[in-house]
Specification:
This protein is α+β, with helices and mostly antiparallel strands and about 325 residues long. The protein has two domains: about 110 residues, Phosphorylase Kinase, domain 1 (2-Layer Sandwich); about 190 residues, Aminoglycoside 3'-phosphotransferase, Chain: A, domain 2 (Alpha-Beta Complex). Helix content is about 50%, strand content about 15%. A hairpin with a 2-residue loop joins β4 and β5.
């Protein structure tokens, strides 16, 4: 099987050239120490990106093989990369081995002119070739779903403060006039159950942006071995919560990897058995996760958020 194709790379733009010159001073010695050339190429072109999208630079070894990726924050969100590093470390510590092995160890991290950066080892992305991606999806999916179940099992815990964070998140849904009336009523119902002591929700570690674009294969080249043995990497932990909300990661992964309804229903049931909850409570968990996201949109456009709410609500009501 031939190696996974390397992505097309692009020249650094004029706007980013000065930033790269300053970054090179910081990371140049590190790159030299690990045998990489201090010449960067942009991983993908910057077209119609959101304001906080990071600059992504690739570094190769003398034989032109990618060896590391540097992520650098933009001025709109200068601490974004640093936050991702901090949260990935916290998640890795919470998970321990073997679950935490899906999180990469940084080669180096720091700040340049107030912008945070991290240098990470190169790993394969999932293929953009339709048939190769289909093979990867089918082979990797059981490993991903098992990992999510294990994360729920490992990290589930009762929140502090009598569920006040769940009440606040659900309150955002209940009070948002852009939401469907049925969602607002259900959020109100869930709040009432918490306040009456009839529902005692639990937190779990949540990535909060778990889709195919944030999955890598744990090898620089050999993707077939990785998907066959479940050696994957999860990146972009900036929005993660150690005290997160169950099921949202499962729904987002299922939507991205096109998990069939019956299979997703079984997974939801498995997670709810771990949490000791019912199908109604599964819907409440999803509303709480969406409400928490709505309270922390930052640069995420609100109309995209409302679309996400509708998609997740349609998915969870179909399988519960």
């Amino acid at each position: 099987m031939p190696p996974h194709p390397f992505p097309v790379q692009y020249r650094i733009s004029v706007d980013d050239a000065d930033l790269w010159a300053r970054l090179a001073t910081e990371v140049g010695p590190v790159l030299q120490r690990i045998g990489l050339v201090c010449e960067a190429a942009v991983l993908r072109p910057v077209v119609n990106t959101v304001a906080d999208d990071t600059l992504k630079l690739v570094f190769r070894d003398p034989r032109a093989r990618p060896g590391a990726v540097l992520l650098c924050s933009r001025p709109a969100a200068p601490d974004l990369v640093a936050r991702g590093v901090e949260k990935s470390v916290a998640a890795k510590q919470l998970l321990g081995n073997p679950l935490g092995r899906v999180i990469l160890e940084p080669i180096a991290s720091g700040n340049v002119d107030g912008l945070s950066y991290v240098l990470l080892p190169w790993r394969c992305s999932l293929s953009h070739v339709r048939y190769t991606w289909a093979i990867q999806r089918v082979m990797l999916l059981p490993h991903l779903l098992r990992w999510l179940r294990d994360v729920t099992q490992k990290t589930a815990r009762t929140p502090d403060g009598n569920g006040a964070c769940f009440v606040a998140a659900l309150g955002h849904i209940a009070s948002n006039l852009h939401m469907q009336a049925a969602l607002r009523r259900l959020a109100d119902c869930a709040i009432g159950r918490i306040q009456a002591g009839e529902w005692k929700p639990q937190h779990v570690l949540a990535h909060n942006d778990l889709w195919s674009g944030n999955l890598l294969l744990d090898s620089p080249t050999n993707w077939l071995m990785c998907v066959a043995t479940g050696q994957f990497i999860v990146i972009d932990w900036a929005g993660a919560l150690v005290s997160g909300y169950p099921l949202f990661d499962l729904l987002r992964l299922a939507q991205s990897l096109r998990v069939p309804g019956k299979a997703l229903a079984r997974e939801v049931q498995s997670h709810m058995r771990i949490l000791g909850g019912t199908s109604d409570e599964a819907r409440w968990y999803v509303l709480a996760a969406l409400g928490n996201l709505g309270l922390n949109l930052e640069h995420f456009p609100e109309h995209h958020y409302l679309q996400l709410v509708d998609q997740c609500w349609q998915t969870i009501t179909t399988v519960t």
